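Q: Entry one of two.
A:
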Amino acid sequence: MMQDINVQKEIEKLQDRIQVLNNIAWQEREMEWSDYQKWVNNFSKSECRVSLPSQEWAALHLLSKFLYFNDKLIRKLLRTLYLDIFRTPLIHKIRRNNNDTLEKELIENKYKKELDQTRFIGMGNPSESGCHLLYYFRQENSLVNRLFIHGHEALSQHSLGEGKTSKHKISRYVFIDDFCGTGKQAIRYSKELVSNIKKIDSEFEAWYCPLVGTVFGLEEIEKQKIFNKVQSVLVLDDTFKSFSEGSRYFRSDQVELKRDSRILCEYYGGFLVDPDSNDRSPLGYGDCQLLIGFHHNTPNNTLPVFWGTGADFYPIFHRYPKIF
């Protein structure tokens, strides 16, 4: 009885915390409390090897740890990508190549040339999130339109010799993405494209710069040696895997809660993964076990109990799946 009372107290604390998150961090989603209640009601199957009160406790605990990237935060990440990952390293390179000069005009003139020889490309199909981000990337960093092209334009420009000999010689392509989970999508989209361009112009550079990436996914891409530079604004290490040994989401004294949370996610996630998928992990694509979402979409690397819609399941964070 005492245990049930303690569980109920924990549930009430989490409800208060989630109410604050909903009013501040998740505000743009305009989620009604009734939506939250519908999601909680998903966890009501007695067949799950966790008691009903503990199911709610586990679900709310995970929800309270969810990392949501709203529109304002994404725009800040895009500014950081430009300033810290793109501009600053080039400034350092210019200074090194010019006896560590501090002459502002010289540095800026050479930087403008570097920028002029760069093209930014959205990772993936034009309908996907990488291309969607280019609009905000251009706005936030006050960049001119001609610096942005589609992937097929990169190959055609080099095939025609324009990328090597035109007035605006192209020496660098920067692929921008919102998220890198396992790295498979970035490899699939870019490997052939970059390889074909390098056959024409072996000196050009290709960079891959997602806003958020897992250590595993970024390392997998680096192993392929497709890109000259692979760097993410925010890197998620193994502590961001919900049920990893060093998970940041559970204290050392929350062993039972962590166990129940995993059982919960594996049980309900089993109903929610695509039966036709090559990866049917109930803990997210590639067994990533993540708790993240963006204002424009939720990655399938996130635990399916947050975005799944199968078996009359009501999602708390919507996911727009790709239709191939």
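Q: Entry two of two.
A:
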Amino acid sequence: MPETRIDALAHVLVDYSAEVQPGQFVWINGGAAASPLLLAIYRHVLERGAHPFLTSQPDETEAVFYRHADDDQLAFVSPAHRTLVEEIDAQINVLSQTNTKALSNVDPAKQAKRAGAAQELQSRFMQRAADGELNWTLTLFPTSAYAQDAEMSLGEFEDFVFGAALLERDDPIAAWKELSAHQQRLVDWLSEKADVHLTGPGTDLRLSIRDRVWINADGRRNFPDGEVFTAPVEDSVEGQIRYTYPAVFQGREVEGVRLTFEGGRVVDASAEKNESFLHQMLDADDGARRIGEFAIGTNPGIQRFSKNILFDEKIGGTVHLALGKGYPDTGSQNDSAIHWDMICDLREGGQVTVDGTPFARDGEILI
């Protein structure tokens, strides 16, 4: 990625997404492949008068860990990580995998145990964010591995990322504020509503959003962004859903996922590929069988599937419902070691109805 693009991305991440202020303690984390962007973020944080702390690791770190870690090591929680979660004012995390299939052969039981060990710190991190004690943002540095997954050249994928992030605009921060205002109108309309009905090919699902809070995801946490989301009432989800695209999680690609809900819980699940992994994740804990997030994608710059959830869950005209942990600031009470976003494309024959009023049809928002 050209240096000017890297600098533009770092500028938006520091000044808009994380809103770094003088004197703050800022944790910057990412893979070694993202070094140019990590250093640009580091410099911008210093220029803001804040205190950066940079951590980076080789791409194969997780694969080596799962290959050699014993049960005690899988369950170990680093005191250093615990301290960071309690002390930071902001976190900027950069994804930069050079092999997105590195964990494909890892024992899912090991991944589930590791996720369970990290659950307490994850919950604390999310609660501090919900309480306004820290800002966090997650982004991606283009690599050949991501480009291959998206079936693009590296240059094409860089253009895709750049466009989705609105960085080609003369003033990217102003463009994100404009998108934020548009999404806020959707949030205002959806607030105080109660019942949602999703219909589409293989999908007939009902859920309650009564007394839940809608969040305007406008580039503050994920970057790029472009969605509005909440959490359904935990025991309200009823019916069936067929997820359109492969659900990628912890290095596994699960295709053709179909779920049936009763009383808010998954009571039947199938997949055309990696079904055993799906069932193991559903059995990770009780919360893994419930929906922690319901979201509507709105980003006009993302129209194609890339096998990367950071982008795919924002595709305009789609919805996604995440199994597992919900965000506390939505009012979610669901706790789990997992948070697994799965996408349902409603652009062809789909509809979202809210309190009996059509909200979206064939991917077009109607209100």
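A: Comment on entry two: The radius of gyration is 20 Å. DSSP finds eleven helices and 19 strands in the chain.
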